[in-house]
């Protein structure tokens, strides 16, 4: 009998009680340890290869890698340690008792990324379509518990068909355990979900509870109810990708933070993101030696940003000029594009950048932009990443759709996130900063540690034209030349209340700086704030707007 058969079968040993005059004979092993070790390695290799070459070929034919191939791309070479590779389900009925493959359709363990510990689980679509059953779920529960206990990031490589129907409610309970652990780990360790295949029904909620979601075009989809159900209920006909594909979730719903054309580039970007995140909420993000001089001037900014507040420009070019080596990782690049959120380094230290984007809707804040920025602020604050906010905002987007859609509630999410953040926070006002949007974009009044402004800044309740129209409405209407009177009053309002030093005179801006010195000023300020320690009031938790 082989070791493989031993693992599959349960044998009953018969104990023989020796006569008093006799000594019990030593048990005779069926094979020596060399043979047992060889059998172990043979079995381990069969587990590693998967169910069959045909199943692997079918996976590759779909343009998808196997679970182990994905893990090899994610982790440093040779660093993976697997947990429970020989696990099998114990379910019966519907033919399951005759199909008990090792791993039960999920590979779990830990390794390193850039030398730092990372935990991972990967669904193996070749086994039960990656569907989750009791044993499958328990393996994930274990690795999640290990990640939380060890204080290390958790990456899930998702390619599964949802709950295993043959196991009924047991499979659903398995998802419940995953959701509970996702929530327990939230804000404690970084959680990253990589969507590499279908994810339907309740299975979609685990990625939604994590910090970042990656998707791959054409091969990954996420939805609660699939196209067939949608058509049956609503009559709408739509494809899988049209309903829940990568471009839909990266550009329309905002579910996915990153989208890629292939698995290799996707997993490489996951590695890059991990290099910008701390291991847990008790550590700082990893710093790197900076080749880019801390005192490098930004003379290019003098030409990149027009002085006229009505002219557009691309804020990405500003960020690129300021940060180390012009490199930054933009989050939700295709969703709510009127605000930018990015991770970058200044003098080798990781920072989170939130910026209005004048090239899109003039950088106005709306429902989606508020949600996007609020989520990013919360994530950075949870993982000790300082915040730099670049402000060029004309206000909140007016309109019936925005008001009825809850712009008050959604805008308050961003306000709450900033007010609740305890990491170092620096505001930089490039040009206009009007109304409530100025306050919400991390002004001194809501707790920014430092506020700087360029000499082109305009901070006011509203633009000069709108303000003059309100304040001098009767005078303008009664004038013999209303337009001339209006222009005079606009000029008067701008000179009295919107000149670049008005806020600085009142202590609402700490300094007005030369744009060419922006990088140096930010780096010096962040160095001073690095030791900042701030505690929130004792409470169970806050009650943010949702």
Automatic annotation (TrEMBL):
One of its GO terms (molecular function) is transferase activity. Keywords: Transferase. Residues 293-542 form the CoA carboxyltransferase C-terminal domain. Residues 33-289 form the CoA carboxyltransferase N-terminal domain. Signal peptide: none annotated. The keyword DNA-binding does not apply. GO terms for cellular component: acetyl-CoA carboxylase complex. It comes from the Bacteria. It comes from Kitasatospora atroaurantiaca. InterPro entries: AccD/PCCB, AcCoA_carboxyl_beta, ClpP/crotonase-like_dom_sf, COA_CT_C, COA_CT_N. Transmembrane segments: none annotated. This is Acetyl-CoA carboxylase carboxyltransferase component.
